[in-house]
Amino acid sequence: MFRSGAQRCLHCDAVLTGPVCESCELTPQAAALILRRKIILRTGLFLLGSLAFVVATYRYPPLDVDGMLVFCGVVFFAGLGLAIWVERGALRGSQVAIRKRLFLALLPVPWLLAGLLVVNAKLDDAKVRRHYTRVVGKFAMSAIVPTRRLVVVSWRAGRRYERVPVSQGEYAEFHVGQEVVVEIHPGIGIPWVAGVVPASGFPVPSAGDPSPAQPGGWSARGSRSPGR
Ligand SMILES: [Zn+2]
């Protein structure tokens, strides 16, 4: 569809046969100006979407937030790079049709991820599940967005640790070695963190009894067994 060689209109991608595009009647200069304006506007939308995603990860923090943040970060920088590439290309009058399509394909991704987190939380009507565990590490970073994690012994099969996103208050409250209860909303596929509370207020679950499948039930996998 986009053979190299043929000069195409920057506005409508029609093949140029004369000084003015037959399809949209714009000169290449006018088409470049319109394209650059559009790209700037869409880049704004893309940045807003990325911001919406970050806000959603604070409002409904997924248990696996770090993987999602890395993915969205890659999309963010790829999208920004493509936007600059299209804009620079339009300025020089180069062919940008393929770059433009790549950018348009990435544009909705942050919005979709943000929407996914909101829908996952809003449609979630299951009870909070409490997981009894122990803090084994803490991690805080205040680069672009403040990041606070409590590293706890995992209750999920095949995993050693969970990096639980926490608030500033929770981060300050808990120390390494402390036993805690992590409250998790199951979501509709993406478990998200309701909060972390001290384990002292809860009865100690017996190792044979806990039933993670039961709403509000205990999951004591790995708890009370140091060295796991
Ligand atoms: Zn045109």
What does this structure look like?
With 228 residues, the protein is an alpha+beta fold. It folds into two domains: 28-122, no CATH class; 129-219, OB fold (Dihydrolipoamide Acetyltransferase, E2P), CATH 2.40.50. It is 39% helix and 19% strand. The protein has five helices and six strands, in the order H-H-H-H-E-E-E-H-E-E-E. The protein has helices spanning 28-59, 65-92, 97-106, 109-122, 168-173; strands at 129-142, 146-153, 161-165, 179-185, 192-198, 218-219. Strands 1, 2, 3, 4, 5 and 6 form a six-stranded mixed β-sheet that branches. Helix 1 (28-59) packs antiparallel against helix 2 (65-92) and helix 2 (65-92) packs antiparallel against helix 3. It is elongated and about 80 Å long. The chain binds zinc ion. The site of zinc ion has 9 residues, from loops.
Topology:
Blueprint: H1 28-59, H2 65-92, H3 97-106, H4 109-122, E1 129-142, E2 146-153, E3 161-165, H5 168-173, E4 179-185, E5 192-198, E6 218-219
Parallel strand pairs: 1-6
Antiparallel strand pairs: 1-2, 1-4, 2-3, 4-5
Bound molecules: zinc ion.
Zinc ion binds at residues 9, 11-12, 14, 21, 23-24, 26, 31.
